[in-house]
Amino acid sequence: MLQTFLAPMNHVFPAEDDVNKYVDDNCSLMYLNEATLLNNVKVRYNKDLIYTYVANILIAVNPYYDIPKLYSPEAIKSYHGKSLGTLPPHVYAIADKAYRDMKVLKISQSIIVSGESGAGKTENTKFVLRYLTTTYGSGQDIDERIVEANPLLEAFGNAKTVRNNNSSRFGKFVEIHFNEKNAVVGGFVSHYLLEKSRICMQSNDERNYHIFYRLCAGASEDLKKKLHLDSPDNFRYLNRGCTRYFASKESDEQILQSRKSSKHLKEGALKDPLLDDQGDFNRMCVAMKKIGLNDTEKLDLFRVVAGVLHLGNIDFEETGSSSGGCVLKNQSNQTLEYCADLLGLDQDDLRVSLTTRVMLTTAGGAKGTVIK
Q1: For the chain, which terminal residue's Cβ has fewer other Cβ atoms within 10 angstroms, N or C?
Q2: Average pLDDT of the segment spanning 73-80
Q3: Local confidence band at 314 (pLDDT 50, 70, 90 cut-offs)
Q4: Given a cut of 70, is residue 284 above it in pLDDT?
Q5: Are the CB atoms for 310 and 323 separated by under 8 Å?
Q6: Lowest-pLDDT range of 167-176, 206-215, 242-251, 309-318
Q7: Is the pLDDT assigned to residue 283 strictly greater than 60?
Q8: Do residues 308 and 301 touch, judged by C-beta distance below 8 A?
Q9: Where residue 368 falls among pLDDT bands split at 50, 70, 90?
Q10: Tell me, what's the pLDDT at 363?
């Protein structure tokens, strides 16, 4: 229902004659203001045109579903060497311009991907990497290793939040290195601002990092026994939040009932076109191999992840002495044994470390041990 209201003149702006008119570049609008810009983006979005330019800045709106052929190999080829604006707005066009500017100007280029949670930063970063390694790769396995490193990072740094099923809970700076022939020869990823508190606590509708659920859902029976794994319901670092797996109908049937959350049997698995805990675990194992991790290193990594889960199940109780402090409850002895075995630590040393701390004086050096 339309409503009429009075507005001061400084809040009134001219609009296009045709509200359904749209352009590739917002700078091409006859009247450029916040309202006409947003309307142009909205009209394009309704036509599955999720990218819009503002000069050489790209606006991307998350469609929350897979648009056919938008990121196909044919699309990659079509943007190769094309000037910005020659073809419809696309993240590939931005990636190609950055590459060509680097090649011509002989200066390093940066692509800044920013936006709120769920905007599509993670996915667009992956498309930039895919474009550069596919189009300007050196033909060596280094190209594939750079691309495969990203989903591995996501397993340890992405989580389901209320607004986004695959939200990056950390920041990262990705470098792509080129040789004198302007071919991709390497890469480096710096990560920062990891949301460490998520490991200990999540809200009811949120999950911990993907890696924990993927390991519980996808580990073989042999690996499950080695790591003493169980359903997410049985780990304190998981059961305070959402304990449901992401799974397709097929993969949900393959996950044993004993590994699923008994609290959510009626609701079933979470659905997302890009996430599948069991399938993603298998793909993650392949990615580890491609980036150079051998079976021993891969197992060591999983042992640490499982060790963290078991650490959360250790319970403490007060000593009752006048000096205060606490000790491990007797029922936590088995869990302590699991942790020590998985983390490669002496069980007694781990017990002492969990119940004591070393105080450091301002002058430096250890002052002594204080019972917690």
Answers
A1: N
A2: 96
A3: very high
A4: yes
A5: no
A6: 167-176
A7: yes
A8: no
A9: low
A10: 64
Cβ neighbours of residue 63 closer than 8 Å, sequence gap 6 or more: 45, 48, 50
Locate 261 and state its tokens: 């959350």
Of 271, 341, 200, 208, the closest CA to residue 216 belongs to: 208
Which pLDDT band holds residue 93 (cuts at 50, 70, 90)? very high
Instruction: Decide if 137 contacts 143 (C-beta within 8 A).
Output: yes
Closest listed residue to residue 347, CA positions, set 334, 356, 358, 359: 334
Please state the length of the chain: 372
